[in-house]
Amino acid sequence: MRVPLSQQAHDGIRQYIDEHNLGPGDQLPSEGQFCQMLHMSKASVREGIKSLEMLGVVEVRHGRGLFVGSFSLEPMVDALPYKLRMDDTPLHEILQIRAAIEEGLIVQASMVLTERHLSELDALVQEMRLHSKEGEVPPEVDRAFHLALFAPLGNSLLDNLISTFWEIYARFSATQEAPINQHAVEDHDEIVAAIRLSLIHISEPTRLLSIS
Q: 169 with 139: CB under 8 angstroms?
C-alpha cells in the first residue's frame, strides 16, 4: 500500500528530529528547507507539519519558524472522551489503569516523602473534608492530592499521566454520570496516615489507591 505523501513528510520530519537528537524548544529547518530535503511539495510538507503539530511533536511559532514541541498527552485527552462515548468503554477501565500506575509507585514515593510533603497532603485532605460537607469533593482537589503524593519522585511523565487521567475523568463527567466515591476523604486521610506511620505495605496502600 502506498504511503500518502503527507505521512511520508510526517515521518521524514520525525526522523530528522531523531537523527539530530533534538529536544523540546530546539529550532527546526523551515518548511521550504524540509521541502528540499525531503524532495516533496510544499502542500505535502505542510500537511506533515500540521499532523505533527496536532501531536505536540512540532510547534509552529508564527514569525519565528518551526520548533520541536514539548511532550504532551493533550491529543490523547482530546481523542479519548469521544472514543469512550463511541465504544462505550466503561470509565472504571480508565480508573483501573490509573490505579495500577499509582500502586506501582506508591512505595517509592513513600520513601522520599518528607514531613513537609505530608503536611501539604494533610492540607489537601482538609480541603476535601470542607468541600465534602457542602457536597461532592471537586475533582481538581483530588487531582492536586495525587500530584502532590508523587511530586517528590520528580517524574514529569508520571505527573503528565496523572493529570491526563483526571482530565479524561473531568471531560467524561461533563457528558455522562460518573461514579462518586462517598469515602474519598477517609481514603485519602488513611493514605497519608499510613505513610506517616511507615505502615506502607503492598496490601493496604494499593487497596486505598484502587478506590480513591
A: yes
